[in-house]
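For the sake of transparency, this paper describes our internal protein records without simplification. Such a record has a labelled line for the sequence and another for the backbone structure tokens. Nothing more is needed to write down the fold, since each code stands for a local backbone conformation. For reference, a complete record is included directly beneath this paragraph.
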Amino acid sequence: MLRFDRRLLLNIDWVLIVAVLVVAFIGMVNLYSSTHLYTNVGVPLYLKELTYYLIGAAIILLFISVDYRVLLTLNYPLYIAMILLLLFALVFGKTIGGAQRWINLGFFRLQPSEPAKLILVITLASYYYRKDTGKGFGLLDLAIPALLTGLPFLLIAKQPDLGTGLLLVFVFASMTMFIKLRRSTLATLLCGGLSSIPIAWKFFLKPYQRQRVETFLNPENDPLGTGYHIIQSKIAVGSGLIFGKGYTQGTQGQLDFLPERHTDFAFSVWAEEWGFFGSFILLICYFFMILWGLNIAISARDKFGVLLAFGVVSLIFWQAFINLAMVMGLLPVVGVPMPLISFGGSSLITNLAGLGLLMNIRMRRYMGTS
């Protein structure tokens, strides 16, 4: 299982490592700015985040030491463990802000819905790899992966955490579109997806979830209530102008107008203090990471590596895209964190584990497929 091959050392992906370090540095700088005025939280949050980075780095070292193809035998045990953790959180989990989605481990609060995203990528990549015949997937062939996605979606939505649940759906849709589908299957899925929107709005969305969509369409209707988050975030992003107001000088973030500024709205703090120029630099870093991840997928040694790398890239892309659109008022507020930027141990470690898988795939591209 362990492959201590010196060729691995020669194929370490320094490009991806440097890109991750740059984004991580930006995240730590931004987190300090958004939380340094907190005086009653015990250990400073930026020190906690640094601890999570060290844990994530250890996980990356573990991941790159083991051939990623071992996941073909571990995917379903991992999936079952994920479902059990989600059930445990739903029944015995710690409730914060009306949501029951954390498991208190004493030294750490685990949010099982975060590793669930990466485990779903592994599970879907394993399934599509095993079942691919080259003739294209039909509608019945997608029943099992849809079920594998639907079960954690329902458990996560029940917490409630619709944003993370929908992220699972986006990852499933991305990976499904990436494989070869029959034209009739694609047409059926598109028609079914579009027709299900009004049904979901009427019968499945809770009142507060419909309220979020209505607030997104017209936040000025309730500027001090449901529209407050979006309005303050848009003010912060827009007031940064070209070069920003300066480090730790943003009025929306430093004067506590901007809510959740170290988690969901971390990018708003960055945009206010560093302006368009700083935001452009950060987005370029993300864009490069995504392109490099796709390059890793293209150069993978086997189809499983291709699917696994693409799944990880789609996970990072959708998190970044949804969070950016949310803080700029282009999507409803759904609580999806910015990868490597927003504070949160479960999210950070999960994303670093996914990046570790990308490094693993890149390092082993020269090996045989046997």
